[in-house]
User: Which sequence fits this backbone?
């Protein structure tokens, strides 16, 4: 069986062939296709050469289909239908959808930003499954590998930034959190008093110093660090009954201080206070996918709704 050279085939001819086999007349096929009759006649000649068959043959009542044409007609319908499906915009119905969405974010971020999202997901897309990956890791590597579909992070990628899309979910700044009996809980928060205190910090990656230590080093100062934790959730237990002071994003501090013997204080005014941005990231491979686009919009809309109306149920 000889190999067919697909590059030599004009797929537009198949559309003409479909009309010819339906209409069994050049004039009617031309009208249906909004083409001139000579153009359809030329196309028919090319089709006869392509298939080495007359396709339309004269019969008792005009033109009839050849045996080859009758064989081709049902396959032709499937081919044209398949091509239409290939180029048609993808659709997504959450109520009928199934499958898993993999999202990377820390435990506390999942608590702060994703609980309302899960409520709405269960209501609108009950067949969908959300998997939260909270183990500290490089989420951007996982996004690039396709292991994650989304990541919520206050960090930024340090490679292939053109591969990632993002939208801001929240922004905040740092505050100090400490026990009620901590000396810094009262009085003015001066830089001198802050540097004399004993500190802890949360290191999600387990690498490098805290950003505040970097700022202090640039200013020519150094603070005493007695604890480095891997989770925000441990902070209340570590500073409630000790002299440790932590500097954390304000949004996280507000949640951690609920029903605990903790107080919050501003950082000394001398220490730079860059805005902390939390972004929803995704890889370019999923940018146009209808399911992922729908879920991204759900996350964006629901988190903004909750931040503007805390305590309100998912809508």
Assistant:
């Amino acid at each position: 069986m000889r190999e067919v050279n697909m590059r030599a085939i004009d797929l537009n001819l198949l559309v003409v062939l479909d009309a010819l086999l339906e209409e069994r007349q050049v004039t009617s096929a031309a009208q249906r296709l909004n083409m001139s009759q000579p153009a359809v006649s030329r196309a028919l000649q090319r089709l006869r050469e392509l298939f080495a068959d007359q396709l339309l043959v004269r019969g008792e009542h005009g033109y009839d289909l050849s045996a080859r044409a009758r064989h081709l007609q049902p396959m032709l319908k499937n081919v044209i239908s398949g091509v239409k499906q290939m180029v048609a915009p993808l659709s997504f119905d959450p109520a009928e959808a199934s499958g898993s969405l993999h999202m990377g974010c820390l435990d506390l971020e999942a608590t702060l930003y994703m609980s309302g999202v899960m409520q709405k997901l269960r209501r609108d897309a009950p067949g969908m499954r959300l998997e939260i990956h909270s183990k500290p890791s490089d989420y951007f590597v996982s996004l690039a590998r396709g292991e994650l579909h989304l990541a919520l992070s206050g960090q930024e990628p340090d490679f292939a930034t053109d591969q990632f899309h993002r939208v801001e979910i929240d922004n905040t700044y740092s505050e100090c959190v400490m026990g009620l009996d901590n000396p810094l809980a009262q009085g003015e928060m001066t830089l001198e008093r802050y540097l004399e205190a004993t500190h802890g910090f949360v290191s999600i990656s387990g690498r490098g110093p805290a950003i505040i230590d970097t700022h202090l080093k640039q200013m020519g100062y150094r603070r005493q660090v007695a604890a480095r934790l891997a989770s925000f959730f441990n902070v209340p237990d570590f500073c409630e009954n000790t002299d440790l002071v932590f500097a954390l994003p304000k949004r996280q501090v507000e949640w951690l201080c609920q029903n605990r013997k903790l107080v919050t204080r501003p950082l000394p005014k001398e220490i730079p206070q860059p805005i902390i941005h939390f972004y929803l990231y995704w890889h370019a491979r999923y940018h146009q996918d209808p399911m992922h686009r729908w879920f991204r919009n759900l996350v964006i809309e629901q988190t903004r709704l909750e931040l503007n109306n805390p305590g309100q149920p998912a809508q």
Notes: The two ends are 61 Å apart (CA to CA). The chain has three domains: 6-87, 94-171+276-308, 174-265. The mean pLDDT is 89. The CA atoms of residues 163 and 285 lie 8 Å apart.
